[in-house]
Amino acid sequence: MKERQKLSDFASKIYDIFSLQEQGKNLVTLVTKAFGCQHACLLFLDVYGEDFTTLFCQPRSKNNPLSHLRLNRQNPIIKHLGREKKLLAGESLATLPDFRSLREKGAGEIKLDEIELFLPLISRHRLIGILVLGKKQSGSYSPEPSFMLKPPRRRALMN
User: Fold this and answer.
1) Where are the alpha helices (DSSP H) in 15-137?
2) Does the pLDDT value for residue 155 go beyond 80?
3) Residue 57's pLDDT is what?
4) Contact (Cβ atoms closer than 8 angstroms) between residue 60 and residue 49
5) What range defines the domain where residue 57 resides?
6) Could you give the number of structural domains in the chain?
7) What pTM value is reported for the model?
8) Are 101 and 82 in contact (CB under 8 A)?
9) Which of 24, 31, 64, 139 sits CB 3.0–4.6 Å from 56 for a disulfide?
10) CATH number of the domain that residue 108 is part of
11) Three-state DSSP class for 3?
12) What integer is the mean pLDDT of 138-157?
């Protein structure tokens, strides 16, 4: 429970952070511990603005299937997250029409069986990053991850 409180505190202060990239490692570590993820990573646009690439991952090891995750801006997952601006469950990739091309062509280097949730990071109505959560160590996710990462309503109304 201590980790969840730290995560909640972090989320409430996120608007005071100059650069989310500065706190990315901290965010991924807190999320991994708070929700019991086997793997998690934080993707940001590369310097060319073409691909979302992994900047931080937990655990940091060569065996982490998310450590080299790269999603092109034209990827249907990126388009969906940018348009919908809400959590995307990995299981939705098998059923939603938006992802037909992924199913038909194959997901490439994306290990879909290792991914449970895509949480978009939105700033000024734009997709700036993606928090990707792998399977939980036990059980499955509830709606909790997206709730825990949202800043308090009153704070959002002030900005």
Assistant:
1) 20-35, 76-84, 100-105
2) no
3) 92
4) no
5) 2-158
6) 1
7) 0.76
8) no
9) 24
10) 3.30.450.40
11) helix
12) 53
